[in-house]
Write a structure and sequence with these properties.
The protein is about 45% helix and about 15% strand. The strands form four sheets. It has a seven-stranded mixed β-sheet with strand order 4-12-11-10-7-5-6, sandwiched between helices. Strands 1-2-3-14 form a four-stranded mixed β-sheet. A hairpin with a 4-residue loop joins strand 8 and strand 9. Helix 4 runs parallel beside helix 12, helix 5 runs parallel beside helix 6 and helix 13 packs parallel to helix 15.
Length: about 425
């Protein structure tokens, strides 16, 4: 009997090493900064990378947009919940039980968006992926119309839904209508888009998209993760600020940005929420959020429903930083939101600027490279908040001007 021919050996280590080498060669290998935020003193933090002991730094790129993760009411609520019920939730909500903190928060979120019900997920990514993925399973023949700049979590959900999709040019209502008009009139349809696009800092034409949805009998799915807490009289997002929440089928949001804690959610009519709760694997088979986190988010949502101080402070800071950058000739991408992107257009240079800011000026801002943004549009993304004062902005602007000059980058005249 002949000996079996040995199978060719796969060089797994080489494949993994080459994958990382490609990122280094393209200048987009990601380095995670080692920091601790200073409780109650945001945006001040301590950096542990590249030196002996912690070094004071100023954080300029946090998505804790309103510093609610440092708010005394949020911290107190989390401490109280920890001592009341302990650390974890005990499992999925079906097995571990529906912790009352979850029930209260879902009621607050439904009220925030003027919807019948809300549903909590472990993150905004999961809420998008699970909900959009489930919609395609519930509606046979569904066509999803998706903005080309939608978040990766929305793209993953649409892909996992298995349904047909159409990509429309960013915020291009005319192109969206072309695609809707060309689709089967009898097919169920859903338009998925964001309110604030976090890398561009621009806003979707929500009313016009809702008009098209009405005309073509389509559902709407609005991702408000970069707007909830920060826009609208009570923090309901752009849809609340524009008086359009009632026209949207599903509103999705996060608890990990303006609300300063962790988690994601959807808000919609009762039957839609019940369908997602009952069919979405990303909800059914995932351990629910810790009651400690839910208690903190609940305190944050309630606070921002009643207080506009943080929203007003953030808007003032964003406007001031944009003006300073523009006056200094820095290539700021002027938009109508709190996002302040500074265009670099090269991944290696973006990383180099970020490294110099951290090492020499104690300023932390992460470079944004492909695939988060298209190649050739690499940038630094600043998110000034209510606690970033004029002195911090002046120091930051002067540092950037010096680096631009050192690297022979072009400033506007």
């Amino acid at each position: 009997m002949n000996s079996p021919v040995p199978a060719p050996r796969v060089d797994y280590a080489r494949a993994f090493t080459q994958a990382i080498d490609r990122l280094h060669a393209e200048g987009r290998y990601r380095v995670f900064i080692d920091i601790l935020r200073n409780k109650g003193a945001f945006p001040n933090a301590r950096c542990f990378a590249g030196h002996n002991g912690p070094k004071p730094i100023t954080v300029w790129c946090s998505n804790d947009y309103l510093a609610m993760g440092q708010h005394p009411a949020v911290i107190a609520a989390m401490e109280a919940a920890l001592h009341d019920v302990g650390a974890g939730s005990g499992g999925t909500r079906n097995i571990g039980g529906n912790t009352h903190y979850h029930v209260d928060l879902e009621a607050e979120l439904a009220d925030l968006h003027a919807k019948e019900q809300a549903l909590l997920f472990t993150s905004g990514y999961v809420s998008n992926e699970a909900t959009l993925g489930t919609m395609g399973k519930i509606l046979p023949g569904l066509i999803i119309f998706s903005d080309e700049l939608n978040h990766a979590s929305m793209i993953a959900g649409i892909r996992n839904s298995g349904c047909d999709k159409r990509i429309f040019r960013h915020n291009d209502v005319a192109h969206l209508e072309e695609l809707l008009a060309a689709a089967d009139p009898q097919a169920p349809k859903l338009i998925a888009f964001e309110s604030v696009y976090s890398m561009e800092g621009d806003v979707a034409p929500i009313a016009a998209i809702c008009d098209l949805a009405d005309n073509y009998n389509a559902l709407t799915y609005l991702d408000e993760v970069h707007a909830v807490g920060m826009y609208g009289a009570r923090g309901g997002g752009i849809s609340e600020a524009h008086g359009l929440a009632h026209r949207l089928t599903i509103i999705e949001g996060t608890l990990g940005k303006a609300f300063g804690v962790m988690g994601g959610y959807i808000a919609a009519d009762q039957v839609i929420v019940d369908v997602i709760r009952s069919y979405a694997p990303g909800f059914i088979f995932t351990t629910s959020l810790s009651p400690v986190l839910v208690a903190g988010a609940l305190a944050s949502v309630r606070h921002l429903k009643a207080s506009s101080v943080e929203r007003d402070g953030q808007q003032a800071a964003a406007a001031q930083l944009k003006a300073m950058f523009a006056d200094a000739g820095l290539p700021v991408m002027l938009g109508e939101t709190h996002i302040v992107p500074l265009m670099v257009g090269d991944p290696v240079k973006a990383k180099r600027i970020s490294d110099i800011l951290l090492a020499e000026y104690g300023v932390y801002v992460q470079p944004i490279n492909y695939p988060t943004v298209p190649r050739g549009t690499e940038r630094l993304r600043f998110t000034p908040g209510p606690a970033h004062d004029a002195a911090m902005m002046h120091e930051l602007t002067q540092a950037l001007v010096e680096i631009w000059d050192r690297m022979a980058l072009r400033l506007a005249a």
